[in-house]
């Protein structure tokens, strides 16, 4: 027969057990947010894979199908630049992209669609990691950049979801563009030129990053790498289709881009570019915001002049701050915004690129949280970006991007003044404590 413990002993044992369990609970509680985030991420990835897998056949009629069909056409030595599906849903990239899609088209449609989605997630994670490293002025807790990146993606979530489920290449070309910038400022010019060449083959708009190579540690090597890589990427399809056929494809590419121009795209509400807003305002369109009635060619020349002037101002700022290592993230953010709004066709999914400047601004605010003007500009950018659909006729999304550009410049100026004054104070963060950001 077991002798029962005295009441005092039983109370002491229960108290010790309770304290032990409480200590375990507190220790486990520190990682609960991370566990919840991991579970939510896995659930989101699983849901996305199931969704795109079930709709893979239907997506063949959309953006995703353009690349898959181009890969099949390349394998079967059929024309890739055609208007069979109309001027919208047709292949418009460099021939080398069709060669890459050729490998993907060997996989069944459902599996290929899931693989394409997986590549989006991988590139997106790498993209946000690179931007976070460029944006961190001083070392902070390793989890702070992760949460900043997450918040930045939430702020562009509608565009991210649209990109992921339509199967566009926005994430991939944006990833290679940021990779080129990251490699260039880290003195790896040959790899930087190659990465930028791939981005240009995916979308022509990363050409606006080419002048930045002049401000990197070894500009000649970077420019030489870009030119050699572009030549190699244009020549590579010859190994698959032959030199004569490849020369024909290279000649057809710019001609096909001209043939697929749709004048009405210049003033559609979905197009939130600087060119679209100028077309809606300065030409005779169906909207009631026309200031003057220019023809579309005059609008195009005005837009071209404004884009050149804006690029000159932007690169003058880059030249002035080129010796400041803190300015690298600011340069990237401004170039990304410029590339987005001066793209003649800035559809909703193109605004996914604004996640990059959001990371830069939020990181700066972590280091200088009392900067009220930057908070106001950031809030204005978010509100304008998510205005109702019909308000977009007045360029609300475009205005939001410009407010974000102002926030980037303001946060850089604020951080520079604090650094020069020696007042850039960041709370000490240990590996086990929480950040004060």
TrEMBL record:
<keyword id="KW-1003">Cell membrane</keyword>
<feature type="transmembrane region" description="Helical">
    <location>
        <begin position="169"/>
        <end position="185"/>
    </location>
</feature>
<dbReference type="Pfam" id="PF09594">
    <property type="entry name" value="GT87"/>
</dbReference>
<keyword id="KW-1133">Transmembrane helix</keyword>
<protein>
    <submittedName>
        <fullName>DUF2029 domain-containing protein</fullName>
    </submittedName>
</protein>
<feature type="transmembrane region" description="Helical">
    <location>
        <begin position="144"/>
        <end position="162"/>
    </location>
</feature>
<feature type="transmembrane region" description="Helical">
    <location>
        <begin position="37"/>
        <end position="54"/>
    </location>
</feature>
<keyword id="KW-0472">Membrane</keyword>
<feature type="transmembrane region" description="Helical">
    <location>
        <begin position="301"/>
        <end position="319"/>
    </location>
</feature>
<feature type="transmembrane region" description="Helical">
    <location>
        <begin position="222"/>
        <end position="243"/>
    </location>
</feature>
<dbReference type="GO" id="GO:0016758">
    <property type="term" value="F:hexosyltransferase activity"/>
</dbReference>
<feature type="transmembrane region" description="Helical">
    <location>
        <begin position="326"/>
        <end position="343"/>
    </location>
</feature>
<dbReference type="GO" id="GO:0005886">
    <property type="term" value="C:plasma membrane"/>
</dbReference>
<comment type="similarity">
    <text>Belongs to the glycosyltransferase 87 family.</text>
</comment>
<feature type="transmembrane region" description="Helical">
    <location>
        <begin position="373"/>
        <end position="389"/>
    </location>
</feature>
<keyword id="KW-0812">Transmembrane</keyword>
<feature type="transmembrane region" description="Helical">
    <location>
        <begin position="349"/>
        <end position="366"/>
    </location>
</feature>
<keyword id="KW-0808">Transferase</keyword>
<feature type="transmembrane region" description="Helical">
    <location>
        <begin position="114"/>
        <end position="138"/>
    </location>
</feature>
<feature type="transmembrane region" description="Helical">
    <location>
        <begin position="191"/>
        <end position="215"/>
    </location>
</feature>
<dbReference type="InterPro" id="IPR018584">
    <property type="entry name" value="GT87"/>
</dbReference>
């Amino acid at each position: 027969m077991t002798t029962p413990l005295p009441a005092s002993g039983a109370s002491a044992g229960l108290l010790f057990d309770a304290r032990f369990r409480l200590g375990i609970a507190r220790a486990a509680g520190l990682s609960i947010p991370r566990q919840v985030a991991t579970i939510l991420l896995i659930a989101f990835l699983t849901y996305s894979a199931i969704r795109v897998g079930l709709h893979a056949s239907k997506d063949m009629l959309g953006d995703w199908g353009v690349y898959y069909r181009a890969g099949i056409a390349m394998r079967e030595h059929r024309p890739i630049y055609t208007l069979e599906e109309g001027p919208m849903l047709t292949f418009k990239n460099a021939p080398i992209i069709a060669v890459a899609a050729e490998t993907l088209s060997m996989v069944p449609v459902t599996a290929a669609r899931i693989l394409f989605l997986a590549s989006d997630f991988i590139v997106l994670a790498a993209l946000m990691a690179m931007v976070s490293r460029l944006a961190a002025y001083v070392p902070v807790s390793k989890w702070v950049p992760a949460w900043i990146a997450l918040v930045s993606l939430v702020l562009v979530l509608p565009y991210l979801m649209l990109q992921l489920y339509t199967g566009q290449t926005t994430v991939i070309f944006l990833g290679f563009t940021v990779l080129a910038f990251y490699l260039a400022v880290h003195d790896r010019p040959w790899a930087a030129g190659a990465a930028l060449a791939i981005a240009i083959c995916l979308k022509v708009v990363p050409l606006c990053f080419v002048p930045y190579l002049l401000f990197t540690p070894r500009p000649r090597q970077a420019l030489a790498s870009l030119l050699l890589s572009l030549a190699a990427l244009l020549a590579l399809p010859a190994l698959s289709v032959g030199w004569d056929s490849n020369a024909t494809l290279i000649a057809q590419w710019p001609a096909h881009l001209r043939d697929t121009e749709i004048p009405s795209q210049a003033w559609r509400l979905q197009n939130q570019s600087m060119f679209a807003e100028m077309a809606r305002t300065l030409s005779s369109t169906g909207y009631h915001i026309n200031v003057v009635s220019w023809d579309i060619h005059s609008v195009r020349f005005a837009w071209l002049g404004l884009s050149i002037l804006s690029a000159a101002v932007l690169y003058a700022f880059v030249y002035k701050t080129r010796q400041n290592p803190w300015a690298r993230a600011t340069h990237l953010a401004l170039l990304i915004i410029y590339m987005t709004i001066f793209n003649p066709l800035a559809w909703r999914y193109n605004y996914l690129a604004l996640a990059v400047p959001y990371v830069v601004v939020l990181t700066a605010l972590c280091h200088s949280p009392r900067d009220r003007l930057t908070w106001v500009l950031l809030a204005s950018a978010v509100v304008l970006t998510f205005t109702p659909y019909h308000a977009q006729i007045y360029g609300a999304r475009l205005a939001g991007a410009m407010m974000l550009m102002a926030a980037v410049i303001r946060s850089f100026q604020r951080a520079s003044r604090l650094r020069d004054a020696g007042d850039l104070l960041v709370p000490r963060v240990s590996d086990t404590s929480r950040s004060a950001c």
